[in-house]
Structure formats: C-alpha cells, structure tokens
Amino acid sequence: MSLNNSSNVFLDSAPSNTSRFQVNVINENQEGSATADDNTAPPHYEETSFGDETHSRFRISFRPGSQECYENFLQNGETAKTDASFHVYDSHTNTYYLQTFGHNTMDAVPKIEYYRNTGSVSGPKVNRPSLLEIHEQLAKNVAAAPGPADRVANGEGMPGEELAENKEEDQGGAVKFGWVKGVLVRCMLNIWGVMLFIRLSWIVGEAGIGLGVLIILLSTMVTSITGLSTSAIATNGFVRGGGAYYLISRSLGPEFGGSIGLIFAFANAVAVAMYVVGFAETVVDLLKESDSMMVDPTNDIRIIGSITVVILLGISVAGMEWEAKAQVILLIILLIAIANFFIGTVIPSNNEKKSRGFFNYQASIFAENFGPSFTKGEGFFSVFAIFFPAATGILAGANISGDLEDPQDAIPRGTMLAILITTVAYIGVAICVGACVVRDATGSINDTIISGMNCNGSAACGLGYDFSRCHHEPCQYGLMNNFQVMSMVSGFGPLITAGIFSATLSSALASLVSAPKVFQALCKDNIYKALQFFAKGYGKNNEPLRGYVLTFVIAMAFILIAELNTIAPIISNFFLASYALINFSCFHASYAKSPGWRPAYGIYNMWVSLFGAILCCAVMFVINWWAAVITYVIEFFLYIYVTYKKPDVNWGSSTQALSYVSALDNALELTTVEDHVKNFRPQCIVLTGGPMTRPALLDITHAFTKNSGLCICCEVFVGPRKLCVKEMNSGMAKKQAWLIKNKVKAFYAAVAADCFRDGVRSLLQASGLGRMKPNTLVMGYKKNWRKAPLTEIENYLGIIHDAFDFEIGVVIVRISQGFDISQVLQVQDELEKLEQERLALEATIKDNECEEGSGGIRGLFKKAGKLNITKPTPKKDSSMNTIQSMHVGELNQKLVEASAQFKKKQGKGTIDVWWLFDDGGLTLLIPYILTLRKKWKDCKLRIFVGGKINRIEEEKIAMASLLSKFRIKFADIHIIGDINIKPNKESWKVFEEMIEPYRLHESCKDLTTAEKLKRENPWKITDAELDAVKEKSYRQVRLNELLQEHSRAANLIVLSLPVARKGSISDWLYMAWLEILTKNLPPVLLVRGNHKNVLTFYS
C-alpha cells in the first residue's frame, strides 16, 4: 500500500483556523542548548493553549537571550524561518512549520467538520486522517503539492475561508428565526385559541373555579411533560426540518416516525379548515346581527372560509418572513384583547351588565362559583375533553425546526416559556371571570329583589338581583348560558371580536405552515415512495410549495364539507398520539441507555416521560373513545406498512439501542443457565468464503439453522497481513449487507491468517458469544483434492481434526457440480461493466446526433475519450481470457443451476439418513429439522442402519421404538446387514486406481530404500497402513455400492462421516475414502456429531 504524501494529506489535518491556538515557539537547536552557559535560565518548553480568537494569531515567547534567533518570524501568517531554510515537512531542522500543536504530524485536532454528516447544510464534512494513514509507515520520496495549509504559510489566507464561503453559499439569503419569533410567538398563538374567548367562561360555570383551574393545570401537565420531552430530544443533536415527525422518527425509527408523521401532517391540514371555519362562524354571527347575510349561514361559512384560506395561502407562499410578520401582528392584537378583558373587570359595571350577571369582583360570587355545578349530561371529564384542545399547539415552533437559527436552544426555551405564559393567562381569565360573573342571569334590568325576599345564599340576590326563575326556565346570560361573556366584561367589546379573529387566523396560519413542512420532511426521507413528488422545495428557504397546494386542497375540501364536528375529535386524537409518541421517545431513549443519548436540556425524567405518554393515551379516550380507536387503527396500519416496506434508512434510533441492550442482557442471562439437551440446536460455522461465492453451501446450512440456530458465514484471508486486513475490512459491511438483502439469517465473520487452517482454528475458538457459540462446522467437499497441493490437503484434513479436538461436530456437503461460483460472478461483473459502457456510448452518440458535420464527430471522440472507451486488450494470467467455447458456457450454466438447487422447493421424495454410527444424534436431528421447512416438508425420512443379517426384524423394531421415543416421524426403516462384505472387484479396482498416485509401495523396495522413501514422502500411503485399514477401506467402497442401490433417487443423503484417527490414517487415504463413499450420488451430507446427546426422549 502506498500513502499519498502530498501536502494535503499532512496539512489538511491542521486546524481550519489557526487562530484557535496560541503557540509559544522555542528554539530546538540542541547543539546550542548543549553549549549554553550553566548559569542560564532553565529551558522553556513549548506551550499550546486554546485562546480567544480576538488575540493575535500567534503569541511568541523567547528564551532569555535567544530573541535574535526569531527576528525573521513573521506574525502575519507567513512562513516561520530561522537562519536556515526548511521544507514544510522537514522535522529535522531546528525550526519547522507550525502544524498540529506545533508538530509536523498527520494527527488532527478535534474539529466540528469531522463530525458532520455528508451533505450537511450547516457546512461541509471533512475527513480526518484515517488510522491506517497515521499508523502505517510513510512512503518516502513523495513530492509535496501545495495545499490549503501551504497557502496559510505563504500568507494567502486561512484554510477555513473556503469552508466558510461554501457555508454562506449554502445558506445565503435563507430566513432563519430566533426563539422569540420562531417558537414563542407561534406557540402562544396556537395555544391561545378561540376557546379562550368563547368557551372558558362556560367551563368555569360548569366546573367551578376550583375544578376549572384543576382542568387547566391537568391539561398543562400533559403539555408540560410533552414540552420537556420535546426539549430533551431536540437538544440531543442537530435538529432539521420536520418538527414532531423528525423528533419521533430519529428517536424511535422510521416505523413510528413514518406512521405518526403522515397523520400529524394530515391533522395539521384539517386543523386549518377547523380554525378557518371558527373564524367564518364568528364573521357570519356579525353578519346576522347587522342583517347582512349573503346566502344562508352554511354557504356563507363556506364562502368566507374559502376566501380566508386563499389569503392565508398567499401569505404562506410569499415566504416565511411574511408569515412571521403576520404572526407578530396577530399576537399583538391577541394580547390587546386579553388586556382589554382584564381592564374591563375593574371598570364599574352598569345596570345592563349587572342584569346579565356581571358585578365586578365580588367575594360572594367567587365563593358561589368556586364549586362545580354540572348540568345534565356534563361531568368533569366531559368538560376536560372540551377544554383540552385549547392547550394543544405546543409543537407549532418545533414544526418549523428547519427554519430556526438554533433549534436546540429555541425549541426548549420558546416552548416551555409559551406553556408558562399561556397557562398563567388561562388561569387568570378563569379566576377573574369566575369572581365577576354569576352562573345564570336573565338579562332583564327589572329583575331586582323585592323587599323581604329570602336570598337563600344567592350571590346575585345579595347584590340586588333576582335570577331565581333561571332555575325553572332557560336563561340567555351568565357563565352557563352566554358564550360572549368576555365581550360583555371587556372594556371595549369589539376588541374581543378582534381577539377571536386573531386567535383563529393565527392558529390556521401556523397549521398551514406546519403541515407542508412536516410533510416535506416525511417525503424527503422517502419512507412512502409514492409521495416523493412532494419532497421538492423552492427558493432560498426550500419552501414546500407542492405541500402548500396539497394542504390548501385538503383544507378547502373540509371547509366545503362543513362536517367538522365529526372530524374534530379525530384531529385532537391525532395530535395527542403525536404527544404520546414524543414522550415515549424520550423514555425509550433514556431506557435504552445509549451513550449517544446526551440531551443538553437536562430537566426531564424518563419515568415522568413514560407517565406523560400514558396520560396522553388516557386523554385520547377521555376526549372521544371511538376517535381514539380510529387513531390507533390508522397508526397501526401505517406502522405495519412501513415495517413491511423496510425503508433503507439508519438514524441510530433508540429502538436499535434497546435491541442491543436486550440482546446483551439475554446473552448474559443465557450464560447463567446450563445447556440442556432439549434446547440443543445446530449452531454452525460455515466455511463459505464470501457468502455470495458458495450460495448452495449457505442455503443448505440455512435450511436447518433458520429461526432456530446460529449461522456464521466465515472467510479466511490468506496472504500478506497488510493486504489481507485491508481487503477484509473493506468487504465486511458489503458481505453482511448481501446476507440481509438475500434474507439469509446469518452473520458474516472473517479473519486474516498465515494459512487457511490457522484462520479456521481461530474462528472455531473465538466465534460466538456466551452460550451462542458454534457447535457444528459446515464445509464443502474438496472436489479438486487430487490436483491440489499437499499443503491444501493437510490444511483441509487438519481443520476436521481441529474441530474434533474442540468437540465441535462436522458436516461436509458434496454436490455434483461443486460450490464455488466465483468465476461466474466475475463474468457477470464483466458483463455489467460492458453493458454500462455500451449504455454510456449510446448516450454519447444520442447526444451528438443533433450536431452536424465534423464538429459532431469531434465531439463524439471527445466524449468517448472522457468515457475512457478504448480497444479492449487481453489481460495476462486472467482466469477469464477470452470468450470461451460453448462447452464452458454450458458448464457455467450447470454450475449456476446447481448453486440454486437448495433455494427451490423440493418435490415429493425422500431424505435418506444412513445413521451408521451413533454420534449423539446429530446425524438424525439435521434431516428432521429439514423436514420442518417449507421447501423440504414434502420429503419423507428413510432411515438406514447397519445390523446383523440374522436379527434384521428385531433391530428394525428396536430402531422404530427409539425413533418413536424421539418423536421423529419416518417413512421407512432399512436394516443393512451386508455392509461388511467385500465390494465387487470393479468397485475396488476404481478405489485402487484412485489411490495409486499417492501410494509409497515400500514393500517392493529394500529396507534402506523404503526408509528413504518414507522420509522423503511422509504423506504418502504406505502398504502397512493400507493393510491395517483394509477392512475400513472395503467398508467405504461397499457403502457406495449400497448407496447406489438404495438412495440413488433420494433428494438428499445424510450419511455418517467416517473419522480418521490422528496419526493412523494418512490425508490422501482419507480423502480417497470420502471420494469413493460419495461418488456419483445425489447431494450428500457427511455428518459427525461431537458424541454428546443432542436428542432425548425425556420430558
């Protein structure tokens, strides 16, 4: 590997603004130090401190008597030099260029640019030097090209200037709001709705001052907890546009965020219609009073509502700056209207107002109105349900988070202050109106008390008015009957009407802005691919004009339908569902204990957030139970949809963190429990190499580990450590992603080793975690063993010996075509590249078709040159030389088909289990698990075991009894009594020819020659060895004859793997056994467990 030693590599790692450091430069001339007088002052060492940027760029201190050494140091950013010139990378001279902490190093100091995401709007991302660049030895004699830091050394400007300019270009002209105009104003306007002016007095009349204040405080508790949770999430990292959707999706993931984001945006769109209709109804009431109706009340509401929405849309589309100015004006009007009410309470009441129940502040009225007086059909929760929507709107500021200067500061400060101010105002209005106005009044100035009349504790009677007839007949005035109490009490009634207009229009405007912003953020994340059209933004503020139009259409539709009384509870529940999920997000992130959960806003508690989430869910049912059910059903449906689609996003959600914590806890809990045979499952290490290169081996293993056991695809990189580690690290994520994409429930692991056996040995010992450790090694049969080098055979057999040493079972899989399809994949890659080049060339030709004459031809050649289309040249030593013959193509086709054979559904057939040796039951368990899978469920098990010819029936009954106790269904049992007879001569001859090249034939030589041959070829099969294991060799050949006779038509053969005793069986003889045993058969699994029970018939 070579390192790029250009100046950029070194100098880009320096701070982007050198004014961040104040460096005291010292003289490093050691010779001078050595010859210094003994009486000189102690040496001064280099000091580096983080200084204020207003200080000079460098502060230089000198050793006593050494100032002349630094006279030519330029403090304006020019290169620092002493009497000898030096190169910027030369760290051997007595003074050198000031880099990180004054040293010539590639290590970079902490900078925010290293931590940004790619494509960040707040500035460009800069890559820090990699660990490899810092750790590896530097390449020598690499020319240094001028970089940004060189320009600093030459006084040409700071490296950070380019970044700053790019940042200004990205954000140039964009309107950003502070916490007052962006959050506080919006939240206050949205919380102070029409409820404040026309329904709060009725709530006080029904619930009384005491319970009325309690209702306000209970509503505030819900919103305050939600506000605290919002503040915590908003200060746990950079917040972009999207408001509630962004906060929930980045905390709980796309499933929750995508479901709530859609209904939250829809709720805001419909809320526009609700607020506009409230405004239109007030206007229509004024038209009725002046007898100026246009058509009829319903159609007048539609006409006025439509005109209003068009005007509000125009304000919104004009830009956020205009919308913000309109909000400020509306807030001023609203504050004047509220102040007008409080002023009116102290203005002495006249007879007309007294007849309508207003007597200024009276202790008797306060005492009378303090307790509840619920009318028929009303109660605490019904009144609470009516008031609660008035407390919502706390997310109005968060919903435009993308338009805030500093969302992390603005959202907590503005939201919590808005909740405090609006709560104080609600409580103040409730207490004041409850202390000034009686519950029932006739409105007649003649209803005064008669002398001698018994008042029975009535406050109005004590103040000279008799409203007793209101107990028998309906009255039109008082807290319980008149929704215009605040207009009556206020100093100037029309200002209250202006306040109603301001409250409704400001809420409508906030919702009209919020809905498109949230919807745009949702569409940008591409969670719902069909909605990608609405992700596009326009102008300097990236305005979602398409979202505005959609919101306008939805609002107009609901205004024209004019059935908002039905839809209103659903909308309130949509908002509450958002609040519930925000609270749950805060709890979940805290509970997951992720190190990444570090909110700057510390005033929150995870259990309080959980309580808030439960409270929001409860309030949903209190407001309207059927609307709550509908909300949950819609959210559940969207959650299932997003989960099914599995959007390709990774936001580091708390769901991921909690999954990790749960997995870790479960893994640790497993270690406290001893393994039990009933819970045994094959947990496999599969030597696939790259998982895509041997898909058939992975498929058959996955068939019996999926959803039941551990499966680890392993690859060993053999070669120079440096290159192997680099190749291994670069492919880890890609290969794990391939497993996920192909829905293979397996892990990928890789090691770099000096030899294949060492790598597998490391994997066998170190793979797994706690009880989730591999107990079975799965490997492919080495098809080319006859042509393979000796070391490969020794490694292959050594791996089997190592597995048995570690008490790990072994499964060797053989299929006729082999497993490795890497050459086919290479061909596919080459074809894909050729196709891309062809398409690029076609596009170039198409672009030049419109050009005429030689100019077009020249343009074609120019573009072709850019595409680097050249005459193909054959590659040396390539496994893909040229287009091969048709025969090779057919072989590749067969190989591809064979590699996919275990992906297909296996038809009706059999799995033949040759359970010749008791290995603990693994040879029987694996085929049984296979029959449970959908692809293998039509295959029946046939069991073949060895036995004595004269006891076939008895042994068959005994085996059937054992299998029934194991509760393993089987189609048939075959007792093979002639396993140990000699094979026929033709079969034996094939075996002898197979091992002939590997025999030593020492018996034909004299003793000295034989000993010499043994020393020179210790790996060869000796005659003595062959004679010693002749019976075993006969058995392998005979077994192949029996397999050919009984299992030739099986879908799969599972066969006991013969064990080669270490030091007794040579590698080539063992490979010959495996070859003759599995020759010319359907797919074969050679299985040998670790001789510990994996089956039991005990409960």
TrEMBL record:
Domain Amino acid permease/ SLC12A: start-end pairs: 182-685
Regions annotated as coiled coil: 824-851
Record domain Amino acid permease N-terminal: where: 90-157
Transmembrane segments: 191-218, 260-280, 301-320, 326-347, 380-402, 414-438, 545-564, 570-591, 603-627
Domain of life, source organism: Eukaryota
Alphabetical keyword list: Cell membrane, Chloride, Coiled coil, Glycoprotein, Ion transport, Membrane, Phosphoprotein, Potassium, Potassium transport, Sodium, Sodium transport, Symport, Transmembrane, Transmembrane helix, Transport
Membrane topology annotation: Multi-pass membrane protein
Domain SLC12A transporter C-terminal: 694-1099
Stretches for region Disordered: 32-53
GO MF annotation: an example: sodium:potassium:chloride symporter activity
GO-annotated cellular components: apical plasma membrane
The keyword Nucleus is assigned to this record: no
GO biological process, one term: sodium ion homeostasis
InterPro entries documented for this protein: AA-permease/SLC12A_dom (IPR004841), AA_permease_N (IPR013612), SLC12_C (IPR018491), Slc12a1 (IPR002445), SLC12A1/SLC12A2 (IPR002443), SLC12A_fam (IPR004842)
Pfam (any one): SLC12
Reactions catalysed, as given in the entry: K(+)(out) + 2 chloride(out) + Na(+)(out) = K(+)(in) + 2 chloride(in) + Na(+)(in)
Location(s) in or outside the cell: Cell membrane
Comp. bias intervals (Basic and acidic residues): 44-53
Family: Belongs to the SLC12A transporter family.
Protein's UniProt name: Solute carrier family 12 member 1 isoform X1
Organism: Erinaceus europaeus (Western European hedgehog)
Gene from which this protein is expressed: SLC12A1
